[in-house]
UniProtKB/TrEMBL annotation:
Record-given protein name: Uncharacterized protein
Originating species: Adineta steineri
An annotated GO BP: amino acid transport
GO molecular function list: transmembrane transporter activity
PROSITE patterns: AMINO_ACID_PERMEASE_1
Localization in the cell: Membrane
Membrane topology of this protein: Multi-pass membrane protein
Transmembrane portions of the chain: 23-45, 57-90, 111-137, 143-161, 168-194, 214-234, 255-276, 308-334, 355-377, 383-404, 425-444, 456-474
Keywords from the named record: Membrane, Transmembrane, Transmembrane helix, Transport
Length: 501
């Protein structure tokens, strides 16, 4: 069965252009995961919450459990290769009467996770740009409003590039695939080979524990320190959102998901270790005047000129990550609105006839992504809360279809990629891990807890849960029916036209 017929069997007509191969699906997913962006954004957080030992060994622990999540999702993706992704999977893994309920909550948590992913990637990039300008100009320290304006410019650039059509996007994806691989390797080799860090010892990298949080419990600090790794190893579900633009999607989608995740695990660990060995002065790195710990590490090791060169490599890597995160988010918006789940769904589901992309969905992703960055004007710790909120929402959305698969009386009909006898065991492990990290990442990272350093992701998570529940109970349950076919509708229109003729 070819891709268009496979999609039609799931209830949808082919509207997007299938221009992605297995390689480009993998490359796009690798770019969205982008360990370079994630590690650089939260490196100072890791230095404070456990330090090198938690960052290095915590990465491995998180990676092992995250691969269980990724394998569980890849198996379901192979069975249901649609742009709707997670919410579509959840709806088809439960009896008919529960379809609207599970797809509604899965979709909304996923959507909020995607919006905050756009915000966190681009806002982290904005702070990185600010630190590079600080190094280049000299005596200049970016104010919050400077960072917000840079964030706006980055968001607009990503919206424009996503509005240029599939050919441009395909070319960018090819470039990004190799850039995401080589950029961290180049910087890592430079640090390990010629860096001047004072801690080129295994003892410092693999055994040093640092607690700068104010909490007295080392176990608590270790657990909240896992956020850096878990935030980095997210976004691999983007392979699913691109399935309707991918050839042999029932194979390419899951393999893109798993290969990007596993590749990011190994590449990220190597990059992380190289940065830790480059730490010259722990205190000045954490409290860098440049505003970014990684910038300070490069500055201490290579001086101003080479730091600017290496930081430009990092900037391009993070910019490509932000661009393709907007792409994946727009496809999720398209899929969700196609099933009438968003306000003004008829606007967001439109495919531009010439550009062959959900143009309105692209700019909606950019708008909401920008709005999520505005709290930084009031509270400088808002970025950490956004990353926590992003991780929680995304992983709740990951867990719901896995939970449905475990509990549903409906027999799961797998696709070409499946886990065989290991499926149920991996599903349970994945679900237990998701439950743990959802609890961990709403906890406050610093003590004493104040209005400034509080982890507001708990407020965001509770708000989304309450609002989505309220809307579903009092409104959506009367009109939202879960994933609905648009193939049947087209056939009915044809029949109606023939009868009138």
């Amino acid at each position: 069965m070819d891709d268009a017929n496979r999609l039609e069997s799931l209830g949808y007509k082919q509207e997007l252009t299938r221009s992605l191969s297995r390689l480009t699906n993998y490359g796009m997913t690798l770019s969205v995961v982008s360990i370079t962006s994630g590690i650089t954004s939260l490196f100072a957080y890791g230095l404070n919450t456990g330090g090198p030992v938690v960052m290095v060994w915590g990465w491995i622990v998180v990676a092992l459990f995250t691969i269980c999540v990724g394998l569980s999702m890849a198996e379901i993706c192979s069975a249901y290769p649609t742009a709707g992704g997670l919410y579509f999977w959840a709806a088809h893994l439960v009896p008919t009467q529960y379809k609207p309920l599970v797809s509604w909550f899965t979709g909304w948590f996923n959507l909020m996770g995607q919006f905050t992913a756009v915000a966190s990637v681009d806002f982290g990039l904005a702070m990185l740009v600010g630190s590079v300008i600080s190094v280049g100009v000299g005596n200049w320290s970016p104010q919050p409003w400077h960072i917000v304006l840079i964030h706006l410019g980055l968001i607009i650039s990503h919206g424009i590039c996503n509005s240029l059509g599939p050919r441009v996007l395909l070319w960018i994806t090819y470039v990004s695939t190799w850039w995401q691989l080589f950029a961290p390797v180049i910087i890592a080799i430079a640090l390990l080979a010629v860096g001047k860090g004072e801690h080129h010892t295994g003892g410092f990298v693999f055994t040093t524990f640092v607690n700068r949080t104010g909490w007295t419990s080392s176990i608590y600090v270790v657990l909240i320190g896992l956020l850096q790794a878990q935030y980095c190893l997210a976004g691999y579900d983007s392979a699913a959102y691109m399935c309707e633009e991918t050839k042999r999607a029932d194979i390419a989608g899951p393999w893109g998901m798993i290969s990007a995740l596993v590749g990011s695990v190994f590449l990220g660990w190597f990059f992380l270790i190289s940065l830790i060995t480059g730490v010259r002065n722990y205190e000045s790195t954490v409290k860098s005047e440049t505003g970014f710990a990684v910038t300070q590490i490069l500055l201490d090791n290579f001086g101003r000129s080479w730091t600017l060169v290496l930081m430009c490599i990092l900037l391009i890597t993070c910019w490509l990550c932000g661009l393709l995160t907007v792409t994946a988010t727009s496809r999720m918006i398209y899929g969700f609105s196609r099933d009438n789940a968003l306000p003004w769904s008829h606007v967001w589901q439109k495919i531009h006839p010439r550009l062959a992309c959900p143009l309105n969905g692209v700019w909606l992703a950019c708008l909401i992504g920008f709005l999520f960055g505005l709290p930084y004007l009031v509270n400088s710790t808002a970025y950490t809360a956004i990353t926590s909120f992003c991780t929680i929402c995304i992983y709740v959305a990951y867990g719901l279809p896995i939970l449905c698969k475990i509990l549903s009386p409906i027999a799961f009909s797998h696709g070409p990629f499946h886990l065989g006898r290991c499926s149920s065991y991996l599903n349970v492990i994945a679900l237990l891990w998701i439950c743990l990290i959802v609890v961990l990442f709403v906890l406050p990272p610093e003590h004493p807890v104040t209005a400034t350093n509080m982890n507001y992701s708990s407020v965001g998570f509770g708000t989304i849960l309450l609002v989505s529940s309220f809307v579903y109970i009092f409104s959506a349950r009367h009109w939202f029916k879960g994933p609905r076919t648009n193939v049947t509708t087209d056939n009915e229109l044809k029949s109606s036209t023939n009868s009138e003729t």
